[in-house]
Amino acid sequence: MTARLLNRRQLLATGAVVLVGNTLARARNGTVHVTIETLAFLPAEIEVKAGETIEWTNKDRFAHTATVEGGWEVLIPPGKVATRIATATDTVEYYCRFHPNMKGRIKVSA
Amino acid sequence: MKTLFALFGAACLVLTASLANAADKPTDPQIAHIAYTAGVIDVEAARLALSKTTSADVKAFAESMQKDHEAVNDMALALVKKLNVTPEDNATSQALSTAAEEKRAELGKLDGAAFDKAYIDNEVAFHQQVNGALETLLIPSAQNAELKGLLETGLKLFQGHQQHAEHVAAGLK
Ligand SMILES: [Cu+2]
Predict the structure, then answer these.
(1) By residue range, what is the domain housing residue B138?
(2) What is the pTM of this model?
(3) Omega prior to B87 cis, within 30 of 0
(4) Is B141 helix (H, G, I), strand (E, B) or coil?
(5) What average pLDDT does the structure give for chain B?
(6) What CATH number should be reported for the domain holding residue A6?
(7) A97 CA distance to ligand 1 centroid (A)?
(8) ipTM for the complex?
(9) Residue B145 counted as domain residue
């Protein structure tokens, strides 16, 4: 009985965490997250609205950048987080200047 | 120019030949030693470049090489310690070191734009050579799954370095 109750509580708790997690990942607080791990942007493609924040979390031991050819660049040191506020013209392809085989894409939605 | 080309060709041959002679498959302790040696070589080349170059792009490239190769070699040291593996010196590591010493001596005599070009061209060639060895020999030969995983990360990293070097080379022209 107790065990069953506990299980149900755990289930509910898990559900709540998943819900909160999703809401945070999707842009309720205006932030879209990209993880950098083993020399890859995950997810490689994101959709944002102008004014929202793009947040890169670098889990590698290597410094990376999010660089737009002829445009902006964000430096993301090893183990650190870096951000950019998306503008209306940020539908772009970007890459890492130090490791150009790392590629990502941003789509700005209306 | 002719001599440079011949030397460069010779360095490539050294690795290929000694890898072929290492009778098919290097062991995990040998693989660890070869990968670590390649990293040390590139860190030393970066130090030489940082002491010579005045180009912002070349400096940024060399700083990235120094930091990345030191980081991945730290990861390699931590792994061999965890696996209780002692890296084993071998003919391939020695051939790599000898070729690198010759290259360093050659680069040491150059300055300015000539140095920048020779350093970056060699970085393209060196990473190409190491990536080829990783893909065709070192990764397929690795027995331990964690060592194989680290080599695969190394390959992605060095492929990135090769492309970075190619970008810098294009900018020097
Ligand atoms: Cu990178």
Answers:
(1) 29-171
(2) 0.82
(3) no
(4) helix
(5) 90
(6) 2.60.40.420
(7) 7
(8) 0.85
(9) yes
